[in-house]
Prior knowledge:
Blueprint: E1 2-8, E2 11-16, E3 26-35, H1 38-45, E4 60-68, E5 80-83, E6 86-87, H2 93-96, E7 107-108, E8 120-124, E9 128-130, H3 137-141, H4 143-154, E10 163-167, H5 171-182, E11 186-191, H6 194-203, E12 208-210, H7 216-223, E13 229-234, H8 239-242, E14 249-257, H9 269-274, E15 278-281, H10 287-298, E16 310-313, H11 317-324, E17 334-337
Parallel strand pairs: 10-11, 10-13, 11-12, 13-14, 14-15, 16-17
Antiparallel strand pairs: 1-2, 3-4, 3-8, 3-17, 4-5, 5-9, 6-7
Helix pairs in contact: 4-5, 4-10
Amino acid sequence: MKALVLTAPGRFSYEDRPEPVCGEQDVKVRVEAVCVCGSDVSAILGRNALFTYPRVLGHEVTGTVAAVGEAVQSVQQGDRVVLMPCISCGHCRACRKGKTNCCESLRLYGVKEDGGMQEYLCAPERNWLKLPTDMVPRTAAMIEPLTIGAHAVSRLSFGSGDRVLVIGAGPIGMSCAVSAAARGAGVMLADTNAARCAFCRSHFPFPAVNVLSKEYRQELENFTEGEMFDAVIDTTAAPASMNHAWEYLCHGGELLFVGIHNKDLCWNDLSFHMKEPALFTTRNSTRADFEKILSLIGAGQIEPERFITHTVAFDRAAEELPRWADLETGVYKGIIVF
């Protein structure tokens, strides 16, 4: 089979590899579509500290079951499936409490293990979820990034009619926005990239404001009638944003960090404390989040196709993916099809 390997930052090569063989509890899948994540872009640019080279990228993966091990019960040959890419140990305290997304020794397909940018991928049964037979590969490949937003929103307690600000209007920010809206919240997005704000306004039913504009604070106040937000979700991984995100909360609001960086955060404790905010972080997603997104897609509350702007065939991906890593190309969400 053919595999696309990122051998070094910006350098891809196709390799011929033997097809994987199922173990007793494994499922072998013929890959049909893989979405490209922001973490993949970071790896291509050499900026992903968690990534190891060489590696087959791809953790937003869907396909059709080609073979199953003898002990597999939940899927069979011919079923459509989506990859749940978190590889958890199953026995640490977090795993025993059902929080497999934050396993103490968590690994991820496409980051620490070879992922889906190859013709076949073999993984344990627990890492695959059966899909409805009528779900097309483009839609199915979008499920995993949407679960990131679903898990983030599940951490918060806002309700219908509350107001949510999502800072960072990329695909993960928008995945948070659509899950928040599905819960009944009024959602506003904010970003420093004017073109991205314009894209979001044209493709999604949310206002998107430019953080760098002089009217930024006034637009937030106008949206919330001067009361500010019940929840703020920061997806930027930028200290300059994260240090100030709490300022847009109403008293008693909730702040959630999605993006991760390796620097200190700093804010005035007195001002922060007087709002009695709740502070949360979020990491990856769980099977329950996948099931939630499947339900929302089935109900028409989330439309994955709105995210996808670029498509490339697998045999052309080696030349195209380095171009997609340049934000100036306007790629919002790209997908590789097999």
